[in-house]
Amino acid sequence: MSAIDWDLVRSSLGPLLDGLLRGTLPLTAVSFVLGLALALVLALMRLSGRRLVSAVARAYVSIIRGTPLLLQLFIVFFGLPSLGITLDPWPSAIIALSLNVGGYASEAVRGAILAVPRGQFEAAMTVGMGRTTTLRRVVLPQAARIAVPPLSNTLISLVKDTSLVSTILVTELLRKAQEIASPTFEFFTLYGVAAVYYWVVCLVLSFGQTRLETRLSRHVAA
Amino acid sequence: MTAPLLEARGLVKSFGANRVLRGVDVAVPSGSVTCLIGPSGSGKTTVLRSLNGLETPEVGTVRIGDVELDWATGPDARAVSRLRGQSGMVFQAHNLFPHLSVLDNVTAGPVFAQGRPRAEAQEEARALLARVGLADKADDYPVQLSGGQQQRVGIARALATRPQVVLFDEPTSALDPELVGEVLRVMQSLAAEGWTMVVVTHEMRFARQVADQVLFLDGGVVVEQGPPAEVLVEPREPRTRQFLQRLLEPL
Ligand SMILES: Nc1ncnc2c1ncn2[C@@H]1O[C@H](COP(=O)(O)OP(=O)(O)OP(=O)(O)O)[C@@H](O)[C@H]1O
Ligand SMILES: [Mg+2]
């Protein structure tokens, strides 16, 4: 008997793809976008120059980075009900993942903003731009280029981290694989197929990262 | 005599324990060119940046046109930006926006900051680019230009917000020697057109030919000032003489 049941592989491709397309990818996309927005807010808080505001952001990032994502997920899903807040698996998953991404990505965003030369802020100010306009028109477009590599890492990690939400019964790729594997005991086959799916998604994202980096670097001296 | 267009009085500025400006006065009549000269570290850049609030002096007043600021009162960001709106600035390192085309660099102030209609701003920007000899570079990006061309875009960008005064901080110091002339010629023609300019420079020929007044700074004070024919040719102060001597005979 071979370790891989090829018929099962073929018949599981569809259901697992379903888990990917309807679970893993939307979870990743929504959490990443929300997380990025949070990251920008946190980065600006850190850079605000107000001690208290900056300390709050710093503490947040420290807690997020200092505790396991799985634990954060459990606190949202299993812990909040004791405070009277009960959330469904999906919202719980998105909240926990977004909060986590926000913490990690904020450091990348902050670093990228700090890497924009001082003279760019000054030039923007001398042509009359205020803080918000300077940020939007001058700083963020340049920071985006600098932030692409670290944010790509965050995104690729996120794709894989979404598998943790299988523990709170969100049907995504890994959970789908578990569901199909359990009655047949074909864990090796099913988890193998799931692994290939994750890997392909990450390959595509890496390729996209390279493309984006090239695009954003076209007006920058070598 | 009418009041000068730009007037700064008693500017005092320290960086930590280092007192960089020790009571500097500057008065610039409308339509005139003022050159700030002096040894490295004498405070020229700091004076210039105090005129538009890129530095915040502890004491002193700055007035440009009808906007006045008393630094001692700790003015808020809004007041500082009102003063800043009166001037344009050309940086030593040009500081062009690398992600924007030449045309968008020039219209950035009018469109993003002043809210003027894009079409109108672009038309004016094209005229300014023609003015600095770069009509055909509007769609290029800064990285594609030579240092001299970049600096001329910087000048066009500074003029685009229609400032009352244009501030230049060593606009040719970062350039290869053969590119200095093209930038200085543009500045000379702006002066001839009647722009009011304050120029920090080490280009003594430019100062002699174009400036209406020269201020010699040393140790954070204006040591000597007057028409270039006096300050640069027959300086009264020994320190001025010594400085000019060193420029003439660097070895
Ligand atoms: N941001 C800063 N922080 C600390 N010290 C500063 C800062 N900017 C300037 N200084 C100091 O202030 C003094 C005057 O500097 P400033 O740049 O005004 O001189 P400068 O006359 O423009 O010199 P240069 O010809 O070299 O440009 C110098 O001693 C400099 O080290
Ligand atoms: Mg200087």
Structure description:
With 222 residues, chain A is mainly alpha-helical. Chain A contains eight helices and no strands. In chain A, helix 2 crosses helix 4 (89-115). Chain A is flat. With 251 residues, chain B is α/β, with parallel strands linked by helices. Chain B is built from nine helices and ten strands. Chain B has helices at residues 44-51, 77-84, 102-113, 118-131, 147-160, 177-193, 204-210, 228-231, 238-248; strands at 6-15, 18-28, 33-37, 59-64, 67-70, 87-90, 165-169, 196-200, 213-218, 221-226. In chain B, a hairpin with a 2-residue loop joins strand 9 and strand 10. In chain B, helix 3 (102-113) packs across helix 4, helix 3 (102-113) runs parallel beside helix 5 and helix 4 crosses helix 5. The longest helix of chain B is centred in the last third of the chain and has 17 residues, at 177-193. Classes of the chains: A mainly alpha (222), B alpha/beta (251). Chain A binds chain B through residues 117, 119-120, 122-130, 133, 137-138, 141-142, 145, 219-221, and chain B through 52, 54, 81, 84-85, 87-89, 91, 93, 95-99, 108-109, 112-114, 141-143, 157-158, 160-161. Adenosine-5'-triphosphate binds next to strand 2 and helix 1 of chain B. Adenosine-5'-triphosphate is lined by residues 15, 18, 20, 38, 40-46 of chain B.
Based on CA atoms alone, the radius of gyration of chain B comes out at 18 Å
Strand content of chain A: under 5%
Name the hetero compounds present: adenosine-5'-triphosphate, magnesium ion
Instruction: Give the mean pLDDT of chain A.
Output: 94
Number of helices of chain A: 8
Which strand order do you get reading across the main beta sheet of chain B?
6-7-8-3-9-10
> Which spans of chain B have pLDDT < 50 for at least 5 consecutive residues?
none
Helix and strand succession of chain B?
EEEHEEHEHHHEHEHEEHH
- The total of beta strands of chain A comes to 0
Major β-sheet of chain A, in short? none
Number of strands of chain B: 10
Separation of the first and last Cα atoms of chain B? 45 Å
Structural class of chain A: mainly alpha
* Structural classification of chain B: alpha/beta
Question: Given the C-alpha coordinates, what overall shape of chain B results?
Answer: globular
Mean pLDDT of chain B: 95
